[in-house]
Design goal:
The structure holds 2 protein chains of 2 kinds. By secondary structure, chain A is α+β, with helices and mostly antiparallel strands. Chain A folds into 2 domains: about 5-80, Ubiquitin-like (UB roll); about 90-160, DNA polymerase, domain 1, CATH 1.10.150.120. Helices cover about 35% and strands about 15% of the residues of chain A. Chain A has a 5-stranded mixed sheet, sandwiched between helices. In chain A, strand 3 and strand 4 (about 60) form a beta hairpin. Chain A starts with a strand and ends with a helix. By secondary structure, chain B is α+β, with helices and mostly antiparallel strands. Chain B folds into 3 domains: about 5-55, Uridine Diphospho-n-acetylenolpyruvylglucosamine Reductase, domain 2, CATH 3.30.43; about 65-175, Uridine Diphospho-n-acetylenolpyruvylglucosamine Reductase, domain 3, CATH 3.30.465.10; about 180-285, CO dehydrogenase flavoprotein, C-terminal domain (Enolase-like, domain 1, 2-Layer Sandwich). Chain B has helices at about 15-25, 35-40, 80-85, 85-90, 90-100, 105-110, 110-120, 125-130, 150, 225-230, 240-250, 265-285; strands spanning about 5-10, 30, 50-55, 65, 70-75, 135-140, 145-150, 155, 160, 165-175, 180-185, 195-205, 210-215, 225. In chain B, a hairpin with a 2-residue loop joins strand 8 (about 155) and strand 9. Chain B is globular. The chains are: A alpha+beta, B alpha+beta. The interface of A and B includes residues 55 and 135 of A.
């Protein structure tokens, strides 16, 4: 066994100090240690995108990162977006355009969508589809997800 | 599916990292972006005793212009290479190829040095390294050396590095003036590993091809097609020459057969993709003759 190490990081604006085993994946750290179960575990090998979170502002697979690597990092998960009473504009758009069915892929879709809205022009649907290509939806409701992101992209100057 | 236990070390210099690798005698792995390594750990295909996280080593994340070449640091993330104005200006073919490297979240984390060292036969960066006659500068406890790309990719997932050796940077020599390029890839989904791909450059002078380069994905490792390249030399890049060159490229190696494609289908794809890439390269070369 390998010695545990204490890490300090910020998740959704809250500072945490926790002692972790080196092999603990970020997704398990979020769900099992911090009880932030909004981030879903799908394939656990970097294919499905369900566990996507933002690390220092960029979307990444939380099943392919170890918590121990993230000393000093700033993590954003789906819990940072909105609440049931006050949805984030992208979540509101997902609701309006029926962009989820079972909802399992939704946290990853939303966090990927946030990265796209922050970093890409999203002038065309092709750009949105390309950006979403790493996220799988088993319900195959892709058209609605693209529509929801397109609608948010059009109005994002108002929301930032 | 959880990774096996390992000891985690985060050195702050390449010398320190190399020392850990040397002491571990092959039982340590370098962790850079982790986009290929961590899936293998999660599947327990690998059980290294030590993971050497090199993300804390300074001065490995850069793209620099030099006389006659650019150099890219090993810890440069894929998205940085994809969007770099230097790359778009100097090596548009690399910028184009980078669009095909995996998906957004993977490009955000994966590194250039990691992709090169992983030596996946279906990956775009090794293809670029082979096509562009790149050099990989490495560091180990015993010193530094330079490995030509053609000597670096030994076979599928096998590179020419020693156990304690780490890729420090990759250098791409500038292409000659009046060089056009083409890149074509076939994958089942955007961002998936290539079933087959072709990357070419043609350099022209007074209407004739003075140098043609062809590199393809589809075999045991990325390869150049020297017999096909020879057909371009001295030609006017007429339709017959391009077609013959594409046919020759399709016969340049034994292509892989797997669940996604048979060897025959890959050979057919390579022929079509090479022809398209050659036509694009010709148009670009003639369009910017100077």
């Amino acid at each position: 066994m390998s010695p545990n190490k204490t890490i300090h990081l910020t998740v959704n604006g809250v500072h945490y100090e926790r002692t972790v085993e080196p092999r603990l994946l970020l997704v398990d750290f979020l769900r099992d240690v911090l009880d932030l179960t909004g981030t879903h575990i799908g394939c656990e090998h970097g294919v499905c995108g369900a566990c996507t979170v933002l690390v220092d502002g960029r979307s990444m697979r939380s099943c392919l990162l170890f918590a121990i690597q993230l000393e000093g990092s700033m993590i954003e998960t789906v819990e940072s977006l909105g609440t049931v009473d006050k949805l984030h504009p992208l979540q509101e758009s997902f609701r309006e355009y029926h962009a989820l069915q079972c909802g399992f892929c939704t946290p990853g879709m939303l966090m990927t969508g946030i990265d796209l809205l922050r970093t890409k022009t999203l002038a065309t649907d092709e750009e949105i589809r390309d950006g979403l290509s790493g996220n799988l939806c088993r319900c195959t409701g892709y058209e609605h997800i693209v529509a929801a992101i397109r609608a948010t992209a059009k109005s994002r100057k108002e929301i930032t | 599916m959880k990774p096996p236990s390992f000891e985690y070390v985060a050195p702050t210099s390449l010398q320190e990292a190399s020392q850990v690798l040397a002491d571990a005698k092959g039982d340590a792995k370098i962790l850079a972006g982790g986009q290929s390594l961590v899936p293998m750990l999660n599947f327990r295909l690998l059980k290294p005793q030590i993971l050497v996280d090199i993300n804390h080593i300074p001065d490995l994340d850069f793209i620099r212009e030099h006389e006659g070449r650019i150099s890219v640091g090993a810890l440069t993330r894929h998205y940085v290479l994809e969007t770099s104005p230097i790359i778009i200006n100097r090596f548009p073919i690399i910028a184009e190829a980078m669009h095909h490297v995996a998906h957004l979240a993977i490009r955000n984390r994966g590194t250039i040095g990691g992709s090169l060292s992983h030596a996946d036969p279906a990956a775009e960066l090794p293809l670029m390294a082979i096509l562009l006659n790149a050099r990989l500068n490495t560091e180990s406890f015993s010193g530094r050396r330079t490995i030509e790309a053609k000597d670096f990719f030994v076979s599928a997932l096998t590179n020419a590095l020693e156990d304690d050796e780490i890729v420090r940077e990759i250098e791409f020599p500038y292409l000659p003036r009046s060089t056009g390029w083409g890149f074509e890839e076939f994958a089942q989904r955007r961002g998936d590993f290539a079933v087959a791909a072709a990357a070419v450059t043609v350099t022209v002078s007074n209407g004739r091809c003075t140098e043609g380069r062809i590199a393809v994905i589809g075999g045991e490792t990325v390869i150049r097609a020297p017999d096909a390249e020879a057909l371009l030399q001295g030609s006017t890049l007429d339709d017959n020459t391009l077609a013959a060159t594409a046919r020759s490229t399709a016969q340049s190696t034994q292509f892989n057969s797997d669940l996604r494609a048979t060897s025959e289908f890959r050979s057919h794809l390579v022929k079509s993709l090479t022809l398209r890439a050659l036509e694009a390269a010709k148009t670009r070369a003639l369009g910017k003759r100077s």
